[in-house]
Amino acid sequence: MASDGGYNSVDLTWSQCSRQQLYTFFSEGKADCVKDLPVLVGSLQDWKPGLYYGVDDQCRIAFGSTARACSFTNTDLPVCRVLSCHIKPDDNSSCKRLLVPLLDGTECAPNQWCLKGRCVSPDQLSSSSSVVVHGSWSSWSQFSPCSRICGGGVTSRTRQCNNPRPAFGGNDCKGRDTEAELCHQQQCERTQLAFMAEQCAQTDLQPLYLSPNTASLYTWIPAVGFVTGDEQCRYMCQCKGENFIVSRGSQFVDGTRCEPDSPAPLGATTACLGGTCQLFGCDGVLKSGKVEDVCGVCGGDGSSCSLTSQSYSGGQAREYVTFLTLPVNATQVHIVNRAPVFTHLAVLIGNQYVVSGSGSIALNITHPSPLEDGRLVYRLYLTPDLLPLMEELLLPGTVTEETHVQVNGGVWALQCLVWWWRESAPCEMCSKARSRCPTGGRF
C-alpha cells in the first residue's frame, strides 16, 4: 500500500481485499478520526519516517527489544528492500529477514537514504523530499542502575540524535549523547585490581581456539601494565604463564578502573563506560573538569591545608629507621632520596612493607596497583652504568591509613620531603612527623 513497513509494500499496489476494507471503513462512518488536523512543526510533513525510526528501531519493532540490524549484508538482496535483523543479543552469526522494505528516509549508505525500496542519493529524491533536515535530540532515558555495589560503579543515561536524524545534508546534533556519574563509591574490601581479576577469572572455563577445532583452557589475569585506555576496557586479559593478551568478552563492567593513556588530573577517576576509558571529575561526574586542589578538596583553593618542605639526614647502617610518619589526610606527598648508593627507602603500612623492607633496594612499584584511587608510586632511577641514581616516592591521593617512611643506611642519607596535610589531621600524627624531622617545618 505504501512504503511504511507494510508487507510487500514496495510495489505500492492495492489488493482487492484492501480496497474493499478501506471502502467499508469510510462508508460505515468510522473515518471521523482522520478529520482532525495534525500538529506540525516546521516541514515535518515532508520528512520521512525512517528519519525517526532507524533500522535498529525497525528491528526492535519487528522482532522485540533485543533485536538489532544485521552487522553483515547480503549482496544478493537490495539493502532497502528487506529488513534484516539479529534477534538474539549475543548472536552475530545468524540474520533473520522480514520481507518488508525499510522505511523511507532510512539511511542505507553514506549520504544515501531508502526510498520505495531503493537506496538513492539526494539528487534522485523528489524536490519535496530533499529539504535539508537537521538532527534533533530525543529525550533523555532514565538513569541506569548503579553498575557496582561498592568501589565506584557508574549510572548513566543516553539520548539519540533521531528526532529526526540528520538527512539531505543536515547538521548532526550538538552536545553529548551520554551523561554519567559515579555511584556507590564506598570502598570495597577488595581492590580495584581484584575486581578486574574476578572478571578475567570468570572466563577461565571458556575455551580459546588458537587453531581450528582445538580448544585450550587457560588461567586469565588482568593485563594491567600491558594495555591502557580504551583498549584496556575491551575485556583485555593476560594468559597466566604464557604472556599473551586476548579480549575475553565485549567489555569490562562499567565502573571497572582503567589506566588512562595520559596522566589524569588530580582527584579525577578513570573508569570504563561502554567499553571506553572515560574521565570522571573529582565530583564523580563524567567529563565535568572538576579537579582537587593540593589539599585533596574537590574544587578547593588550597587554603585548607599546610605545606611542609624539609630534608632529613641520618640513619644507621643495616637498619631501617622511620624518619617520617605520614598523618591520615596527608596529600601530595613527594619524597626524594638523592643518595641511593649508600641508602634506600622503605615504606611500612600497618605491619606490611610495600616498598623494600628486605634489606635491599626496591624496583619500581605501584601499590596496590595502577588502578587504585589512592595508590603509592615508587620509582628507582639509574645512571647509564645502571647504578642507582635517585629514589622517588609519590602519594598523590589522600593518605587513608598511617604510613611510615623509613631509610636504611648510614649518615649519608638525605631525603627531600614535600607534603601537605589537611588542618583536620589529628595533632598527634603531626607531632610524630615533627619529632622525626629537622626544626623549621611548619606543623
Automatic annotation (TrEMBL):
**Recorded coiled-coil stretches:** none
User: GO molecular-function annotation terms?
Assistant: metal ion binding; metalloendopeptidase activity
What PROSITE patterns does the record point to? TSP1 (PS50092)
Q: Where does Ca(2+) 2 bind?
A: 36
Domain ADAMTS cysteine-rich: where?
A: 49-120
Q: Name one GO cellular component term.
A: extracellular region
Limits of the ADAMTS/ADAMTS-like cysteine-rich domain: 191-305
> Is Amino-acid biosynthesis given among the entry's keywords?
no
**InterPro entries according to UniProt:** ADAMTS/ADAMTS-like, ADAMTS_ADAMTS-like, ADAMTS_CR_2, ADAMTS_CR_3, ADAMTS_spacer1, TSP1_rpt, TSP1_rpt_sf
What are the entry keywords?
Calcium, Disulfide bond, Glycoprotein, Hydrolase, Metal-binding, Secreted, Zinc
In the record, biological process GO terms are: extracellular matrix organization; proteolysis
**Could you tell me which residue ranges the ADAMTS/ADAMTS-like Spacer domain spans?**
309-407
Provide the binding site for Ca(2+) 1: 33, 36
Q: Which Pfam families match?
A: ADAMTS_CR_2, ADAMTS_CR_3, ADAMTS_spacer1, TSP_1
Assign the protein's first listed, main location to one coarse class. secreted
Q: What is this protein called?
A: ADAM cysteine-rich domain-containing protein
